[in-house]
């Protein structure tokens, strides 16, 4: 303790007695470099995300400049300018490229997208006319200014003077330590949401707004290099394991009652943002949270024990797993880091085996989750993103265009596609029901209180009936979530009417899935199950009738709906087998007569029990939920006989599936199989 105290006192003395005048007069070049590089990053934010007065990105920029700039002190004064010039050009290049990129794509440049960005060059003329602007080159003033300053310094023999102070090592350590300390303070001040977004990289505008352009680019560089380097070694082993896995686990294409049932029909997929099964079961004062979804599930095939298997790539992970029957990659996301690979997807099977037109619709910016590229990889012919919709202040909810406006505007586009290009598979990605569920004024009136009819006697002894309201879930995040889902459900009701009016339901199958849970706080579930209207309090563990929410119950509550519905046939069927997002592709494939080869999941209609593997190693069957982090499990089906072998075997299968999936993604293994097949075909001809 004493040594720490001593160190702090020494540091204090150092800062207090530091000769700032001498530092400034012998470090003019470095200080000017720092200030001018800061001006450029601020100007870039001014031109793009418009938050130029913000202090946080400024601190992040400064930390980054100090860290990279500090190495100048490892050089002799007369060589220092060369280093300053190189990094000045680098920082300036970051600003110019991003300024240009933003004008063209309304997003920021990424190393992992370099090949795509180079297509900017292909569109030559259009870029010169529409993209290149004077403002993009304004940033060049910085290196030019440094050159002019250097000439002036030469004339006044500044370097001789500055070089006479022989303390370069100390300055290097001091500067790099200052940069690092500032960075640490900065990151400590960030919220969990900010840090998670930096890690995910799907919302690049957000990252630049909060972290500044230099930190954004540095983070992007590390992430892109990581995706490249982790595939340098281990290819042969991965390919061997892959072949062995599929030799033993070829997808079972057994015939069942559903085989080819929907052959030739359109498929409309609805990606239900953050819709959890819990909302379907809930009602307040006799009013259901999701009347339309409930009708859909009662008429259609409802997979009531269904789980999304998303990881850090949330929405995009679910899109990936839904399409490919693979698990999300363990680090990063396929959409951002591994989109430039070949996968076997439902969309490609529809396209190649059945000549379907494949379409996707999403009212948000097409760069979010890198969908502009990612959707091509998934096999969509066309992606209708924000640019295809009229988004106004009036029709905006939460993140962007409201689901109601989105559905209204997309229906005629879908009709046109059908009329012109025939049978289709179309995915509609919803947006309004997105966390933080706080756009309450736009969700409409939906009360999450408990109303009670009471009879009271007034002062004249006359009995009067009135309704009183107990707040229950009002004002909680879960309560707000129910309001938001109620809106999304009402939009879905509209969609069915819109599609039906255009005749689009007559020859179509509608499939809806919840893309992942809504990350709702545990304490809100406790309130939902333990609210006491008599006292307007929540029961605690000590109270009789307390209904606890432990880890397992929380995990099981993360279940999301999967419904398959058609207008003409009333299935009225509930499938209770445990099912994961990776089982959808093989299940749907069988119904539409498609033949996948590399699915990790199964056709659920052929199974009585199943293993749902989560990307973190947890797994679920009809009988058990297993927590791999703590090596604990909970028996869900009390009749089941569980022994250690069951746990070990299932854990081994889970680990194998995760490993094979990661290898396919990182080493692009399906591409190589496809290549071999193509070559064999050519040789055979
Ligand atoms: C972004 C939207 C939401 O366009 O799909 O993504 P999420 O935050 O759920 O991954
Ligand atoms: Mn989502």
How much helix, percentage-wise, in residues? Answer: 40-55%
Q: How far from one another are the termini?
A: 79 Å
Arrangement of strands in the largest sheet: 7-6-10-1-13-16-4-17
| CATH architecture assignment name of the largest domain | 3-Layer(aba) Sandwich
Number of helices: 29
Can you tell me the CATH superfamily of the largest domain? Alkaline Phosphatase, subunit A
Descriptive notes:
The chain has 685 residues and is of the alpha/beta class. It has 2 domains: 2-229, no CATH class; 240-684, Alkaline Phosphatase, subunit A, CATH 3.40.720. It is 52% helix and 12% strand. It has 29 helices and 22 strands. An 8-stranded mixed β-sheet has the order 7-6-10-1-13-16-4-17, with helices on both faces. Strand 21 and strand 22 form a beta hairpin. Helix 22 (403-421) runs parallel beside helix 24 (477-501). Mean pLDDT is 92; it is low at 119-126. The protein binds (2R)-2,3-dihydroxypropyl phosphate and manganese (II) ion. Residues 314-315, 364, 368-369, 429, 431, 434 line the site of (2R)-2,3-dihydroxypropyl phosphate.
């Amino acid at each position: 303790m004493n040594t720490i105290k001593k160190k702090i006192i020494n540091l204090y003395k150092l800062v207090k007695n530091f000769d700032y005048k001498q530092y400034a007069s012998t470090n003019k070049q470095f200080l000017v470099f720092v200030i001018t590089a800061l001006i450029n990053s601020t100007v870039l934010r001014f031109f793009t995300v418009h938050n130029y007065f913000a202090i946080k990105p400024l601190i992040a920029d400064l930390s980054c400049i100090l860290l990279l700039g500090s190495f100048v002190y490892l050089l002799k004064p007369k060589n220092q300018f060369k280093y300053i010039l190189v990094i000045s050009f680098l920082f300036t290049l970051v600003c110019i490229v991003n300024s240009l990129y933003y004008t063209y794509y309304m997003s920021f440049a990424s190393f992992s997208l370099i090949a795509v960005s180079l297509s900017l060059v292909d569109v030559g003329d259009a870029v010169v006319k529409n993209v290149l602007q004077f403002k993009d080159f304004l940033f060049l003033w910085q290196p030019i200014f440094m050159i002019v300053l250097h000439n002036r310094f030469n004339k006044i023999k500044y370097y001789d003077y500055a070089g006479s102070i022989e303390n370069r090592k100390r300055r290097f350590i001091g500067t790099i330590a200052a940069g690092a300390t500032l960075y640490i303070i900065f990151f400590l001040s960030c919220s969990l949401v900010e840090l998670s977004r930096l890690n995910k990289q799907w919302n690049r505008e957000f990252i630049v707004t909060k972290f500044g352009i230099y930190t954004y680019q540095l983070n992007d560089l590390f992430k892109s290099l990581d995706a490249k380097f982790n595939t340098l070694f281990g290819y042969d082993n991965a390919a061997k394991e892959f072949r062995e896995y599929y030799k033993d686990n070829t997808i079972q294409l057994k015939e069942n009652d559903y085989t080819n049932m929907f052959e030739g029909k359109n498929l409309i997929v609805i990606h239900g943002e953050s819709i959890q099964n819990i909302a379907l079961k809930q009602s307040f004062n006799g009013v259901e949270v999701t009347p339309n979804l409930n009708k859909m599930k009662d008429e259609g095939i409802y997979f009531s024990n269904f789980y999304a298997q998303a990881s850090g790539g949330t929405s995009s992970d679910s899109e990936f797993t839904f399409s490919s029957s693979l698990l999300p990659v363990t680090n990063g996301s396929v959409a951002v880091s591994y989109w430039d690979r070949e996968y076997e997807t439902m969309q490609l099977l529809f396209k190649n085996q059945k000549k379907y037109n494949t379409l996707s619709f999403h009212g948000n910016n097409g760069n979010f989750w890198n969908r502009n590229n990612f959707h091509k990889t998934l096999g969509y012919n066309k992606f209708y993103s924000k640019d295809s919709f009229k988004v106004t202040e009036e029709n905006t909810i939460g993140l962007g265009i409201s689901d109601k406006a989105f559905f209204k505007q997309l229906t005629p586009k879908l009709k046109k596609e059908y009329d012109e290009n025939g049978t289709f598979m179309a995915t509609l990605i919803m947006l309004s029901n997105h966390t933080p569920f706080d756009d309450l004024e736009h969700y409409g009136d939906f009360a999450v209180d408990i109303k009670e009819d009471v009879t009271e006697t007034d002062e004249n002894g006359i009995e009067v009936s009135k309704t009183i309201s107990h707040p229950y879930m009002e004002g909680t995040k879960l309560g707000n979530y129910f309001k938001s889902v109620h809106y999304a459900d009402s939009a879905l009701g509209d969609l069915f009417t819109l599609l039906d009016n255009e005749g689009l339901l007559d020859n179509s199958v509608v499939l809806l899935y919840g893309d992942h849970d809504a990350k709702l706080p545990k304490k809100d579930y406790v309130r939902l199950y333990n609210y006491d209207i008599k006292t307007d309090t929540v029961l605690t563990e000590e109270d009789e009738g307390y209904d606890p929410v432990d880890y397992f119950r929380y995990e099981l509550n993360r279940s999301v709906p999967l419904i398959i519905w058609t207008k003409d046939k009333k299935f009225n069927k509930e499938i209770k087998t445990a099912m994961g997002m990776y089982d959808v592709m093989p299940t749907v494939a069988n119904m539409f007569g498609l033949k996948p080869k590399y699915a990790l999941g199964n056709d659920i209609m052929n199974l009585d029990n199943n293993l749902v593997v989560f990307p973190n190693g947890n797994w679920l069957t009809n009988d058990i939920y297993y927590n791999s982090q703590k090596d604990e499990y909970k028996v869900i089906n009390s009749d089941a006989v569980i022994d250690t072998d069951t746990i070990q075997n299932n854990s081994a299968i889970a680990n194998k599936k995760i490993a094979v999936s990661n290898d396919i993604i990182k080493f692009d293994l399906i591409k190589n199989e496809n290549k071999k097949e193509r070559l064999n075909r050519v040789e055979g001809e």
